[in-house]
Amino acid sequence: MSEHSDKLGDPIKYGDIFEVSDELSRKPIDPKDAAAMQAAKSMVIGNVKKGGPEALAQSAADMNERRGLLPHDAVTNVTRHDAVTISKTEVDGQHVFIESIGGRLLPTNSSAKFLPSNFGDK
Questions:
Q1: Where are the alpha helices (DSSP H) in the chain?
Q2: Could you tell me which residues are beta bridge partners of residue 95?
Q3: φ, ψ of residue 90 in degrees (nearest 5)
Q4: Interacting residues of 80 by C-beta distance below 8 A, sequence separation 6+
Q5: 71 vs 118, more confident
Q6: 22: which residues sit within 8 A by CB, 6+ positions away?
Q7: How many CA atoms lie within 13 A of 24 on its CB side?
Q8: What is the pLDDT of residues 9-44, one digit of tens each?
Q9: Segment 101-116, tens digit of pLDDT
C-alpha cells in the first residue's frame, strides 16, 4: 500500500482503500470504474449503500479527478476486461452479498482502509 499517496501527487489506488494485492492494488481508481461498480450494485439490490465499497470507490475517483490526476473519461482494464460482479444469496434467512472487482473480493461493509482525512483534497 502506498500510504498517503496524494502527498506524492499519485492518484488513490485500489490498494489504498481495499485489502487487495498484486496488480489491482497499484491501479488508480478512475471515474468509469467507480461508476461500473455502482451500476452493478444498483442492478442487484436497487441502490448503493452509503459507506459501502462502491461509495468509497466513487469518493476516491472523484478526488482523483478533482485533483487533476485522472480525466473524467479514464478507465482501466479492471472494469473493461475484468468483471465487476455482485451476487446475492440467502444464508439462514439473511441476504448475503459477495462483491468482487477484477476477480478480487471486496469488503461488503465500511471497514475498508480508506479514510477521507488520509487523502487531503488538494
A1: 14-17, 22-25, 31-45, 53-66, 77-80
A2: 90
A3: -120, 130
A4: none
A5: 71
A6: none
A7: 20
A8: 899 998 898 887 778 889 899 888 888 888 888 887
A9: 777 777 655 444 544 4
The residue among 61, 68, 73 whose CA lies nearest residue 101 is 61
CB atoms within 10 A of CB 45: 13
> Would you call 22 exposed, middle or buried from its count of C-beta atoms within 10 A (0-12, 13-18, 19+)?
exposed
What burial class does residue 39 get, using C-beta atoms within 10 Å of its C-beta: 0-12 exposed, 13-18 middle, 19+ buried?
middle
Percent of the chain exceeding pLDDT 70 equals 75
Q: Are 2 and 16 in contact (CB under 8 A)?
A: yes
Q: In what order do the strands lie in the sheet with 94-101?
A: 84-91, 94-101, 104-105
CA 62 – CA 6 distance, rounded (Å)? 13
Nearest to 110 by CA among 46, 28, 50: 50
Q: Which amino acid is at 112?
A: A
